[in-house]
Amino acid sequence: MPARMPVKPPVLPALLACALSALPASAAHAQAAQPATASPPAATTSQAAATTSQAPAPVPVLLLGEVHDNPDGHHARLALLQSRVDAGWHPAIAMEQFDRERQPDLDRAQRECKDAACVVAMAAPARAGWNWDFYAPVIDLALREHLPLYAANLSRADAGHIVEHGWDQPVPAGVLQPQVDEVRTGHCGMLPDGMLAPMATAQVARDAAMADVISAALAAHPGDGVVLLAGNGHVRRDIGVPVWLRARGLAYESVGFVEEVAETSHFDRAEVVPAFAREDPCAKFKAPAKP
Asked: Any idea of the CA torsion for 219, 225, 231, 234, to the nearest 10 degrees?
């Protein structure tokens, strides 16, 4: 039975800001300091990639995940999306990287801009902590093929409000505890226990918001379909956006781009890409060794 999340007492602002700074990327997959671009990847291992990448999507909603800082994953995802477009599919593209409040700016950017740099400057001027080199090829594809772009994410301010004050929507049974476990792991076990459920609830709210945007995009572009670009956690069948799409009766396919074979079971299909060489994201939380 779904349960409504109770309003929780305010948490320390500094701690909340620190925790939210890890969103949208968890500490386990935070972007490395060095620049990276979506260059051609090394050889990859995939599940059924050879067949499904060559045909238009058989369902109206295609959910494409990512490890936020992995250039090989971004390149493989772009190749899949490009192949579907080349085969004749012209979906709207919903992106986690743009907050919902920026949709009017994103609409204006699509009318006025000739390249991705212009779109980002107009619709995400603060750059929001994303490595836009990874997303520029997708935005350029959308501009070139006249694919509508949708801002799909909750803002950090909205997520923070949920962490502070709770969420008045029912959380589906079986979703919250796995999200709590993900938040605990993603923050290296360093969040106070009292913040785990509120942070997890904010992630659930992000998934619900993305499903809302997908539904609206489908209504606005019937017959064209929608692609969502988001972190792998958001496109997981068991706890992510698919939970909310199923509640709406919407068919979808979720595709993960993962670094470990063990992660592939969370998706309808997954492609394993080489792990990106990154510093230990939990190192800054570890106590120095005693002399």
From this structure: 50
> Tokens in use for 183?
């938040």
* Dihedral pair phi/psi, residue 105, rounded to 5°: -65, -40
Q: What is the largest CA-CA distance in the chain?
A: 66
Identity of the amino acid at 233: G
Q: Encoding tokens for residue 16?
A: 């909340």
**Each residue's pLDDT tens digit, 243-290:** 999 999 999 999 999 999 999 999 999 999 999 998 888 887 665 555
SS3 content of the chain, % helix, strand, coil (to 5): 45, 15, 40
- Placement of tokens 């971004």 in the chain: 74
CB atoms within 10 A of CB 23: 21
Whole-structure pTM value: 0.82
- Tallying the residues shown for the chain, one arrives at 291
Q: Is 198 left (phi over 0), alpha (psi -120 to 50) or beta?
A: alpha
**C-alpha gyration radius of the chain:** 19
The residue among 119, 87, 44 whose CA lies nearest residue 274 is 44
